[in-house]
C-alpha cells in the first residue's frame, strides 16, 4: 500500500495503510523521553556493545513483566514468570510458538478471524497448526461474541488460543470487561492455553493499567499463559525491534526450566537479542521521572487517535452518509475496520487518493484534523455512489 | 506428589474468588532443564567466579590489553551523528539498503561486477547467526531433501541452526589433531565423495574454533574441486579484517571462488570486526545467475524473515552504513580493525614464546600458525576442566582459547597454567 502511495503525485493523497503512529503534521514521532535517553546513552563512555545474554537485558525483562502483569502481580512475586527479550512482538510470538511446538503436547493454535496478517505465518513456520475462531461480526462491525464462545468451546482441550490483549488488529474491536470474564472462565474450564499478543498497551485507552486488565485477570486466576509484548508503538521504537516474551508458569521451578528451554530456541535463531532498544526501554521504565514523562506522551498519542475517531465520526454524520458509523468511535486503538468493501476501497484510492488495505482497515494514526474532511468526503462518495 | 497437590490446592483456594479456574497442573511440568550453551555458558560461569586471578578466554569477544571491551572510535562517532536525529521507523523486511550495499562492496569487492550487474540477492540479517539461520531456512524450503556439510569441528551453534531449520547435517574432515593444522587430503576426499550438488559450509577466514585456514593454494584447489562436483559453497565470514588486519586479504577465499564462477551464499557479521556484538548486525547474500533471479531470491529471503522478526533492528545497521559510507570514518575503521588484529597476532607470539621459555615438551607452533580470534590449544576436556578448577581460566571444553581474552597482564599466568597441566602429558 505504501509503495503505491509513494508513487502517487496527488497533493491530497492520504496514507491510511501504515500501522505506525503519525503526528498531526503527518510525521513519524520519536518520543522526547526516547530522544533524551538516547543522548544519555551516547554520552556515557561506560556503555559497551557486548553480547547480551541469550535472554537479553535482565532489567528490561523484569520491568517488562511488571509493566504488563502489574508490579504487585502474585505470579511475579512467586517467581513463576520467565521473561526473555525478543525482537518486538513478531519475535516474541515466533519464539513462543517454537517453544510450544517443541515442548507442548497440543500443537494447534487458534487465531481470531480476522487477525494481523503475519500471525498465521509466524505460527506455521514455528511448527504449529493454525485454526481460527470467530471474532469479527461484519453485520455489527463489532464482536461476534456468540461465535467466539462457540468456537473456543469446541476447541480440543489444551489448544493454544491467541488473544489480542487490547486494540485488536485489524478490527479495533475488543471484548468488554464482562465478555473478557466469560472468555477467561471458558478458557480455564476447557484447559485451553492462552497466548496474549500485546502490541498496544497504553496506546489503546491511554492508560497502561486499563489496557492490561484482561491479561491481569487471567494471571489472577493462577493459570498459565504466554505473553508477547511489543514496544514498537507505545514507545515508538518500531525499528529497534524491542519486545518480550513472558511465560507464566505454575511454579518457579517450572519457570526456570522453561527459561532454559527458551534459550535453546533463541540461540539457533539469532544467538542473543539487540541491545539498543531494550536499553532505552529499561532506562525509561526504571526512572520515576522518565516513566511519568513517557506515560504523558503515550496518553498524548492515544488521545490524538481517540480525537481522530470522534472527528471522523462527526464528519461522516454531518454529511448524512447512510449507515451506522458508530463503530468508528466504539472500536479502539490504531485501526478502524470501516466495513467498506474492496470495490469501495478501490474507488476511494482512484478518485480520492486514499490508500488503505483492501479489507477496509484504516490507520487512524494516519489522519489529522486537516485530512478528516477529505476522508469523510471519500467515504461518503464511495458509499452513496453504489458500484 | 502430595506436597505439590496441596500447594496447588492452596493456590486454588486463594484464587477461588476469581471463579472458573479449574485445577490444572502445569502444562510444562515435564520440561527438562536445558543444558547450558557450551560457549555462552562459559561466560556465565566466569562471571560467577570470585577469584581475582580469573581469566575468560571463552567467548569470542575482543578485549583490549586491559581486558576491557572496546567500542571503536569510528562507531562512537557514528553514534554521535545518529543519536536522537533519526526516526526509528521500521526498516524494510530486507533491512537497510545502504548497509547491505556497503556490506556487499566489502565482501565482493568495491568494484565487483556482480554488484554492478545486480546479481546478488541480499538482506540485512541478525548478525552471523541470523544470516546462517535464514539461509538454512531458505535451503530447507527450496532444497528440502538436501543436507549441509559442515567441517569438523565447527562453531557449535552451526549444528543448532541447521537442525532447527530442519536440514540434516553431514560432516567433512577439516582439523588435523596431530599437526594441529588442516587435514587437507581428508577435506578434499570428503568433498569428492559427497554426492554432486551438495551444500558445503565453509569458514571464509579465521576458522572457528581451530584458527586453521587453508592456504591460498589450497583454497584454489578446494574451489576447483567444488566446481567439478557442482557443490554449493556457503561461506560464513565472521572475521573479515579481524584475521589478518586487512579486509581485502581476509576475503581472498571468497574472491577465488567468485573468479572461478561459483554462485556462492555468504553470511557476514559485524559483531567482531566493528565491535557491534550486541547490536546484531549482519548480512546474508546469495549470488545468482542474473538480476531477475536475485530479485526473486531476495523476495524469498524476506518471506522467511517476516515470520521470524518482521524486519531487522535499525540501530546497528545505521552505525555500519554511517561508518562504511563515510570515507573518513571508513579509514578510521580500517586502522582500528588492524590494531585489534595486530594485538591478537602479538598475543599469539607472546603465548607461544612463554610456553617455549617454560620448557614445555609439547610443540606450540600452531599457536602462531593459526589465525584469528581463536587458538585450538590441543587441551583435552579434562585438561580444560583443570584449567578452570585449579587456575580459574575459562574456555570451552574443546580446548579453544579466545586470544582476545589474553593480554600482557595475564598471558604469563595462562602460559604457566597450560604448562603445569600439560608438562606431564
Short synopsis of the structure:
The complex is a heterodimer of chains A (387) and B (425). Chain A has 387 residues and is α/β, with parallel strands linked by helices.
Please give a structural write-up.
The complex is a heterodimer of chains A (387) and B (425). Chain A has helices at residues 2-7, 32-42, 58-69, 74-77, 88-103, 119-126, 145-154, 177-189, 208-211, 213-220, 252-270, 275-286, 288-318, 327-330, 342-352, 372-384; strands at 14-15, 81-86, 108-113, 129-134, 136-137, 142-143, 160-164, 193-198, 225-230, 243-248, 335-337, 354-355, 361-363. Chain A has 387 residues and is an alpha/beta fold. In chain A, the strands form 4 sheets. In chain A, strands 2-10-9-8-7-3-4 form a 7-stranded mixed β-sheet, sandwiched between helices. A two-stranded parallel ribbon of chain A has the order 1-12. A two-stranded antiparallel sheet of chain A has the order 5-6. In chain A, α3 packs across α12 and α7 packs parallel to α8. The mean pLDDT of chain A is 95. Chain B is 47% helix and 12% strand. Chain B has helices spanning 2-14, 40-48, 73-82, 97-108, 113-116, 127-142, 156-164, 184-193, 216-229, 247-250, 252-259, 291-309, 314-325, 327-357, 365-369, 381-391, 411-422; strands spanning 55-56, 120-125, 148-152, 169-173, 175-176, 181-182, 199-203, 232-237, 265-269, 282-287, 374-376, 393-394, 400-402. In chain B, β3, α7 (156-164) and β4 form a beta-alpha-beta unit. Chain B is globular, with a radius of gyration of 24 Å. Mean pLDDT of chain B is 92; it is low at 1-22. Chains A and B meet through α2, α5, α6, α8 and α11 of A and α1, α3, α6, α7 and α12 of B.
Distinctive features:
heterodimer, A: 387 residues, alpha/beta, seven-stranded mixed sheet, two-stranded parallel ribbon, 16 helices, 13 strands, 47% helix, B: 425 residues, 17 helices, Aspartate aminotransferase (chain A), pyridoxal phosphate (chain A)
What is this structure's SSE topology?
The complex is a heterodimer of chains A (387) and B (425).
Chain A: H1 2-7, E1 14-15, H2 32-42, H3 58-69, H4 74-77, E2 81-86, H5 88-103, E3 108-113, H6 119-126, E4 129-134, E5 136-137, E6 142-143, H7 145-154, E7 160-164, H8 177-189, E8 193-198, H9 208-211, H10 213-220, E9 225-230, E10 243-248, H11 252-270, H12 275-286, H13 288-318, H14 327-330, E11 335-337, H15 342-352, E12 354-355, E13 361-363, H16 372-384
Parallel strand pairs in A: 1-12, 3-4, 3-7, 7-8, 8-9
Antiparallel strand pairs in A: 2-10, 5-6, 9-10, 11-13
Chain B: H1 2-14, H2 40-48, E1 55-56, H3 73-82, H4 97-108, H5 113-116, E2 120-125, H6 127-142, E3 148-152, H7 156-164, E4 169-173, E5 175-176, E6 181-182, H8 184-193, E7 199-203, H9 216-229, E8 232-237, H10 247-250, H11 252-259, E9 265-269, E10 282-287, H12 291-309, H13 314-325, H14 327-357, H15 365-369, E11 374-376, H16 381-391, E12 393-394, E13 400-402, H17 411-422
Parallel strand pairs in B: 1-12, 3-4, 3-7, 7-8, 8-9
Antiparallel strand pairs in B: 2-10, 5-6, 9-10, 11-13
Helix pairs in contact in B: 3-13, 3-14, 4-13, 6-7, 6-12, 8-9, 9-11, 13-14, 14-17, 16-17
Catalytic activity (chain A): L-aspartate + 2-oxoglutarate = oxaloacetate + L-glutamate
Domain Aminotransferase class I/classII large (chain A): 13-379
Cofactor (chain A): pyridoxal 5'-phosphate
Amino acid at each position: 500500500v505504501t509503495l503505491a502511495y509513494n508513487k502517487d503525485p496527488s497533493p491530497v493523497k492520504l496514507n491510511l495503510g501504515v500501522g505506525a503512529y503519525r503526528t498531526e503534521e503527518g510525521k513519524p514521532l520519536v518520543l522526547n523521553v526516547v530522544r533524551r535517553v538516547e543522548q544519555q546513552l551516547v554520552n556515557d563512555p561506560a556503555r559497551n556493545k557486548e553480547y547480551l545474554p541469550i535472554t537479553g537485558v535482565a532489567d528490561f525483562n523484569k520491568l517488562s513483566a511488571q509493566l504488563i502483569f502489574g508490579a504487585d502481580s502474585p505470579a511475579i512475586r512467586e517467581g513463576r514468570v520467565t521473561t526473555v527479550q525478543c525482537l518486538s512482538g513478531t519475535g516474541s510470538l515466533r519464539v513462543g510458538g517454537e517453544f510450544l511446538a517443541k515442548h507442548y503436547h497440543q500443537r494447534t493454535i487458534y487465531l481470531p478471524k480476522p487477525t494481523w496478517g503475519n500471525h498465521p505465518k509466524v505460527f506455521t513456520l514455528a511448527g504449529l497448526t493454525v485454526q481460527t475462531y470467530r471474532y469479527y461480526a461484519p453485520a455489527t462491525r463489532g464482536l461476534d461474541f456468540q461465535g467466539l464462545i462457540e468456537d473456543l468451546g469446541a476447541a480440543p482441550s489444551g489448544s493454544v488460543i491467541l488473544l489480542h490483549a487490547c486494540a485488536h488488529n485489524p478490527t479495533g474491536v475488543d471484548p468488554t470487561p464482562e465478555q473478557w470474564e466469560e472468555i477467561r472462565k471458558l478458557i480455564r474450564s476447557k484447559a485451553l492455553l492462552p497466548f496474549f499478543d500485546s502490541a498496544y498497551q497504553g496506546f489503546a485507552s491511554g492508560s497502561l493499567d486499563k489496557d492490561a486488565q484482561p491479561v491481569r485477570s487471567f494471571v489472577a486466576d493462577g493459570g498459565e499463559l504466554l505473553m508477547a509484548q511489543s514496544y514498537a508503538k507505545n514507545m515508538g521504537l518500531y525499528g529497534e525491534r524491542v519486545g518480550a516474551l513472558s511465560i507464566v508458569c505454575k511454579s518457579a521451578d517450572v519457570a526456570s526450566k522453561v527459561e532454559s528451554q527458551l534459550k535453546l530456541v533463541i540461540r539457533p535463531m539469532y544467538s542473543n537479542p539487540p541491545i539498543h532498544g531494550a536499553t532505552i526501554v529499561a532506562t525509561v521504565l526504571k526512572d520515576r521521572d522518565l516513566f511519568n514523562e513517557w506515560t504523558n506522551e503515550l496518553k498524548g498519542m492515544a488521545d490524538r487517535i481517540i480525537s481522530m475517531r470522534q472527528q471522523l465520526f462527526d464528519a461522516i454524520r454531518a454529511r448524512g452518509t447512510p449507515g451506522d458509523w458508530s463503530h468508528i468511535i466504539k472500536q479502539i486503538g490504531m485501526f478502524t475496520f470501516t466495513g467498506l468493501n474492496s470495490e469501495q476501497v478501490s474507488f476511494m484510492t482512484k478518485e480520492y487518493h486514499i490508500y488503505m488495505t483492501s479489507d477496509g482497515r484504516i490507520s487512524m494514526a494516519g489522519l489529522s484534523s486537516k485530512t478528516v474532511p477529505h476522508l469523510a468526503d471519500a467515504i461518503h462518495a464511495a458509499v452513496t455512489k453504489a458500484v | 506428589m502430595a506436597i505439590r497437590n496441596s500447594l496447588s490446592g492452596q493456590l486454588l483456594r486463594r484464587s477461588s474468588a476469581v471463579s472458573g479456574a479449574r485445577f490444572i497442573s502445569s502444562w510444562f511440568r515435564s520440561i527438562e532443564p536445558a543444558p547450558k550453551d557450551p560457549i555462552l555458558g562459559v561466560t556465565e560461569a566466569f562471571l560467577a567466579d570470585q577469584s581475582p586471578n580469573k581469566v575468560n578466554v571463552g567467548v569470542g569477544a575482543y578485549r583490549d590489553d586491559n581486558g576491557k571491551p572496546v567500542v571503536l572510535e569510528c562507531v562512537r562517532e557514528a553514534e554521535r551523528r545518529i543519536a536522537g536525529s533519526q526516526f526509528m521507523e521500521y526498516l524494510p523486511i530486507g533491512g537497510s539498503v545502504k548497509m547491505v550495499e556497503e556490506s556487499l562492496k566489502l565482501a565482493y569487492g568495491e568494484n565487483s561486477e556482480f554488484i554492478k550487474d545486480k546479481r546478488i540477492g541480499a538482506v540485512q540479517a541478525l548478525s552471523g547467526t541470523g544470516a546462517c539461520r535464514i539461509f538454512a531456512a531458505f535451503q530447507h524450503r527450496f532444497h528440502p531433501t538436501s543436507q549441509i556439510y559442515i567441517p569438523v569441528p565447527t562453531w557449535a551453534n552451526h549444528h543448532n541452526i541447521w537442525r532447527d531449520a530442519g536440514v540434516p547435517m553431514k560432516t567433512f574432515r577439516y582439523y588435523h589433531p596431530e599437526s594441529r593444522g588442516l587435514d587437507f587430503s581428508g577435506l578434499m576426499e570428503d568433498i569428492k565423495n559427497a554426492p554432486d550438488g551438495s551444500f558445503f559450509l565453509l569458514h571464509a577466514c579465521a576458522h572457528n574454533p581451530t584458527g586453521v585456514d587453508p592456504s591460498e593454494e589450497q583454497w584454489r584447489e578446494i574451489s576447483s574441486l567444488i566446481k567439478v562436483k557442482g557443490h554449493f559453497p556457503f561461506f560464513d565470514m565472521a572475521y573479515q579484517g579481524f584475521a589478518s588486519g586487512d579486509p581485502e586479504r581476509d576475503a581472498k577465499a571468497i574472491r577465488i571462488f567468485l573468479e572461478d564462477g561459483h554462485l556462492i551464499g555468504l553470511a557476514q557479521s559485524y559483531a567482531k570486526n566493528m565491535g557491534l556484538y550486541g547490536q546484531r548486525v549482519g548480512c546474508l547474500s546469495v549470488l545468482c545467475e542474473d538480476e531477475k533471479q536475485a530479485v526473486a531470491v531476495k523476495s524469498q529471503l524476506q518471506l522467511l524473515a517476516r515470520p521470524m522478526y518482521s524486519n531487522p533492528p535499525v540501530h546497528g545497521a545505521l552505525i555500519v552504513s554511517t561508518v562504511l559510507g563515510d570515507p573518513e570514518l571508513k579509514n578510521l575503521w580500517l586502522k582500528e580493525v588492524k590494531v585489534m588484529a595486530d594485538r591478537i597476532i602479538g598475543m599469539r607470539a607472546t603465548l607461544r614464546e612463554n610456553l617455549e621459555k617454560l620448557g614445555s615438551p609439547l610443540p606450540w607452533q600452531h599457536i602462531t600458525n593459526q589465525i584469528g580470534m581463536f587458538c585450538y590449544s590441543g587441551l583435552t576436556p579434562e585438561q580444560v576442566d583443570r584449567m578452570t578448577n585449579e587456575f580459574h581460566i575459562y574456555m570451552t571444553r574443546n580446548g579453544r582459547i579466545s586470544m582476545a581474552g589474553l593480554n600482557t597482564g595475564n598471558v604469563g599466568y595462562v602460559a604457566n597454567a597450560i604448562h603445569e597441566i600439560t608438562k606431564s602429558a
